[in-house]
Amino acid sequence: MSVNSQLLRKIPKVDELLRHPSLSSLSCQHTVLTESVREVIDTLRQQILAGEEPCLEEESICEEVIRCVTKKTTMSLRPVINATGIVLHTNLGRAKLSDAAVKAIQSVAQDYNTLEYNLEKGSRGSRYAHVEKLISKLTGAEDAMVVNNNAAAVMLVLSTMAKGKEVVVSRGELVEIGGAFRVPEIMAQSGGTLVEVGTTNKTHPSDYVKAVSENTGAFLKVHTSNFKIMGFFEEVSLDEMVTLGHERNIPVIYDLGSGAMVRLEDYGILDEPNVLDAMKSGADVISFSGDKLMGGPQAGIIIGKREYIEAMKKNPLTRAFRIDKLTLAALEATLREYLDPAEVLQNNPTLRMITATMETLVPKGEKLFACMEKVRDDSFSVALTEDFGQVGGGSVPTQMIRSSVVAITPAYVSLDVLEKRLRELSLPIIARISKDRLLLDVRTIEEHHFDYVAESILKCCQK
Questions:
Q1: Domain of 187?
Q2: Angle between helix 30-49 and 3-10 (nearest 10)
Q3: 81, 185, 290, 424: which has the highest count of C-beta atoms within 10 A?
Q4: Last-in-domain residue among 347, 365, 382
Q5: 406-433: pLDDT as tens digits
């Protein structure tokens, strides 16, 4: 009998493993457990046929089955600890919602609600009514509406205002906004005809004037939030464009992008336009994101002249782009916090993290460092230092912000292994590697997670 045949005969049967105490006591669906056992057995069989000699002890096999069950029963979309220092991390869900927004989601999710019901009239209402007056009050706009993201907002605006017409845009603003979605492609889908003016690095007011024809439907300005042109560069400001448009009775559309509702330049964050300032320019329609610098849920917010907003609400695309009850609940709660400009800086996690200064971050770093020192053994060394994080890749990409970081140097495992083990935890920790150290940036780590982070570092640094 061959070695392979002998090993294959030693593989426990499915029924035998299912009766093993460590598996029979598992709290999971029987079908999931059975499927996991069969998958592990199949893997062992394939390894043996490939000439390998895997461990065939029942305890070892059961441990692998438990890992398989855990993977199958763990939610794919789940929380992580963001230790990268990137506040608006696109891959990690962007804005972290406030306590009020989370409570609003839970309340609306658990019960029937007033999504499209007018309590005063006792009849059907509009889902936009929950936030449109609030947005108008905060921004000074005549009217407002909300869709599921800013790309949808731009599409809806163009489809309503410029379908079958020409839209004049600076060549330097024809950006790709992420996920291969590009302004020219959105323009084409909306039914408008793109008219490029200027060059990549320089566009003048006269370029817009020369492009005007009897079929011009709008001037479009796009804030290039995800890249910057440095050096020999010139653009037409929003104020200049509004003047040009209004002189020629051409509406001006502004894709503002990130949607800052507070003046971030007061906190050292430069080159990011403010929604309130944009509204004062006189632009006819402005769109921006809810889940970037506003710090709310994913949404595309449209503000501006009532005649245009009313037309958008009647556009068939509006139903395809509409937001659901959970997003509306979170958005309304987020917007209500902006009614108190002082309180929103503390209540809104995004604003709180972005505006945090070294005066508060250094003591926070010292607390995490102390937690590390309390559990540390010879498996890793730790240092408290400074480094730079970011607001976000798609928001203020060139702006680096100082922060306090705890640097970990493992003794027995590589940095890549440590980083991978942290990602495999029940509550994953997402960190970054720089200069042969694993960095934990306290700007984006909540203090109630410090003990867990320290214990996890100790666990993941072991041989």
A1: 99-347
A2: 170
A3: 290
A4: 347
A5: 999 999 999 999 999 999 999 999 999 9
